[in-house]
What we know:
Blueprint: H1 19-28, H2 32-46, H3 64-74, E1 81-82, H4 83-90, H5 100-113, E2 118-123, E3 127-132
Helix pairs in contact: 3-5
Amino acid sequence: xxxxxxxxxxxxxxxxxxxxxxxxxxxxxxxxxxxxxxxxxxxxxxxxxxxxxxxxxxxxxxxxxxxxxxxxxxxxxxxxxxxxxxxxxxxxxxxxxxxxxxxxxxxxxxxxxxxxxxxxxxxxxxxxxxxxxxxxxxxxxxxx
Length: 144
């Protein structure tokens, strides 16, 4: 019998693996409440019910991966999201879950784009946290 969590492919780092196994592993590595939030978000995206406007500003542009990181942090605003969970969500097709350096670089660029609107805090040894500037209301929140 095969292990349902075993990667599919060559087993070399950076190679694609079974997306269901990757998703399961991602959820198992999260706290239960975060796992539920993540699963619901993925379901909403798959069914076309996710908000396409989150992370979209009229006056600033977030490239794809920066927007993905922003959305992951925004969904857990004010709470620390582990680097491991972020790498698994951002690079689900990688056996190694992406690199620490790749996440650091992505967070660096996102921090620069968020100046004056929000702070992306790096909590050493734990992960990252989004903290919005006092009195800031994101454009997509005005329609709520």
